[in-house]
Amino acid sequence: MSALEETFAFQVKLARLPKPEREVFAIPGRQFRFDFGWRPQRLLVEVQGGTFGRGRTGHSSGMGINRDCEKNNLAVLAGWRVLKVDVKHVTSGQALQWVQEALKETA
Fold first, then answer.
1. Distance CA 28, CA 107 (A)
2. What is the distance between the alpha carbons of residues 19 and 96, in angstroms, rounded to a whole number?
3. Which of 24, 55, 57, 58 is nearest to 42 (CA)?
4. Angle of helix 3-14 relative to helix 94-105, nearest 10 degrees?
5. pLDDT in tens, 13-50
6. For residues 16-41, b (16+ Cβ closer than 10 Å) or e, as one string?
7. Cα–Cα separations (whole angstroms), residue 73 to 56, 58, 66, 101
């Protein structure tokens, strides 16, 4: 778990939202994991760390972008809603607002 993921988890807890599952396997037969998931609401959150870092590693490399596209598209086709957030979304509180709105839609 990254520090950014822990920050987001703490925000979710402070907001008294339903506790999410961590490291969620949401696509049957695949090993893709999502950082956070709310199964009853069919909501997944992927926290993208290092989006403003130097170099092309992880999610910003060609292979990483390709893998993330496949992962997200398969989740959507399996009936999930996927929110992708980065450091600015988490630190500003925008990521939490999006999750609150998404959870409210299914209440």
1. 25
2. 13
3. 24
4. 50
5. 999 999 999 999 999 999 999 999 999 999 999 999 86
6. eeeebeeebebbeeeebebbbbbeeb
7. 22, 18, 11, 21
